[in-house]
Specification:
The chain has about 400 residues and is of the alpha/beta class. The chain has 2 domains: about 130 residues, Alpha-Beta Complex (Aspartate Aminotransferase, domain 1); about 250 residues, 3-Layer(aba) Sandwich (Aspartate Aminotransferase, domain 2), CATH 3.40.640. Strand 6, helix 7 and strand 7 form a beta-alpha-beta unit. Helix 5 runs parallel beside helix 6. The chain is globular and about 65 Å long.
């Protein structure tokens, strides 16, 4: 049976051109890029070229790109890299994030909380959106870092990153802080890179996470943009690669593949976003028509074009995922990093803001389905999905 893959928010199929671009660096120019011989120099040049490709895409400088093993490590580097020095100097540390962040953010903050840091969680409304002015009121003199994801991995809502950055700048002025003083603003843009504006000069964030596996690149490689003037400490120690910020031999094939997928993305981004937006809206309309009890999770319009997240009260989300899998449809009930929990904590948070009873909130959180469309999604795929979903919900 051929499967219809609708779980692109979890990971994506590696583009064939990306695989081809990486091949040379597995078998020919495979040397350590820190070596001074010709093969090492060739590998180093490939990394430099890849760094430039990604920097240009982000409207950044080459030196502002730090390669990591993926989005989780990039998020950890932004958070612990900011906070570690402050903890060592016994300074009070306050951090801000939201209630619906990816687990790599929330678990990092919990770890820092256990070490004495104070954490504030910014709430979201019933559509999953934060209020940037509410954030401004939470910032204290000891606030070191604010981490708010560009796009939520489960419900696909887009946070107002530019407005958030603006409010943080205004608060800094009130506190008498210089431009490169804390609090710093980090955003995980892993789910945004494929579809949204990634111009770092316009977004205004100090640090931005991107992840190759979310954009048809290889697993195991990501990057953290760190704006010039922002000081962070390494969390991995060794040979001092990546300008001393991330030790370890650079994974040349994956880095080259990362750059190739960025190159491909740059050419198709606008057209693909428009195509998937039409599919998304049409499927939402059809679901509401044929499964009227279904509830759309997250703001309908302020969301990435590939995300369809619904709750079907009375149904078990994970069971529906398994039943759909038997019918050849691959989807999820929550973030892949939270699979097995039995419910979506993101949907629970937004449901709690909707004035529902505890039973209704529990039902929404446990009956969630996420369909994340991709470059290979066709109209006939969604027609088949709807047919199967209607049958399973009777």
């Amino acid at each position: 049976m051929k499967h219809i893959y609708l779980d692109n928010s979890a990971t994506t199929l590696v583009n064939k051109k990306v695989v081809k671009a990486m091949k040379r660096y597995w078998s020919k120019d495979f040397a350590n890029p820190s070596s001074i011989h010709k093969m090492g120099v060739a590998a180093k040049y490939a990394v430099q070229l890849a760094r430039k490709t990604i920097a240009d895409f982000l409207h950044a400088h080459n030196r502002e790109i730090i390669f990591t093993s993926g989005g989780t490590e990039a998020n950890n580097l932004a958070i612990f890299g900011t906070v570690n020095n402050l903890i060592k100097s016994n300074k009070k540390v306050h951090l801000i994030t939201t209630e619906i962040e990816h687990s790599s953010i929330l678990e990092s903050f919990k770890e820092l909380e256990s070490k004495g840091c104070k954490i504030s969680y910014l709430g979201v409304d019933e559509k999953g959106l934060v209020n940037s002015k509410d954030l401004r009121e939470m910032i204290k003199p000891e606030t070191a870092l604010i981490s708010i994801g560009y796009v939520n991995s489960e419900i696909g809502v887009i946070q107002p990153i530019k407005e958030i950055a603006k409010e943080i700048r205004h608060k800094k002025k009130e506190l008498g802080r210089e431009r490169f003083d804390p609090p710093y603003f980090h955003t995980d843009a892993s789910q945004a890179t494929e579809y949204l504006n990634m111009n770092t000069e316009e977004l205004g964030a100090d640090m931005i996470t991107i992840d190759a596996q979310k954009i048809y690149g290889p697993k195991g490689v990501g990057a953290l943009f760190v704006k010039d003037g922002i000081e962070i400490s390494p969390i991995i120690f060794g040979g001092g690669q990546e300008d001393g910020k991330r030790s370890g031999t650079e994974n040349v094939p994956l880095i080259v593949g990362f750059a190739k997928t960025i190159e491909i993305l740059s050419k198709i981004k606008e057209k693909e976003s428009f195509r998937l937006e039409r599919f998304r809206d049409e499927l939402f309309d059809q679901v509401k028509k044929f499964i009227p009890q279904a509830i759309i999770n997250g703001d309908l319009k302020t969301r990435v074009p590939n995300n369809i997240n619904i709750s079907i009260p009375g149904k078990d989300g994970e069971m529906l995922v398994l039943r759909l899998d038997e019918l050849g449809i691959v989807c999820s009930s929550s973030s892949a990093c939270e699979s097995g929990s039995g419910e979506s904590y993101v949907v629970r948070k937004i449901a709690e803001k909707s004035g529902l009873s505890k039973k209704e909130v529990d039902d929404m959180a446990k009956s969630t389905l996420r369909f994340s469309l991709g470059r290979h999604t066709k109209g006939r795929d969604l027609a088949y999905l709807l047919k199967c979903l209607v049958k399973l919900c009777k």
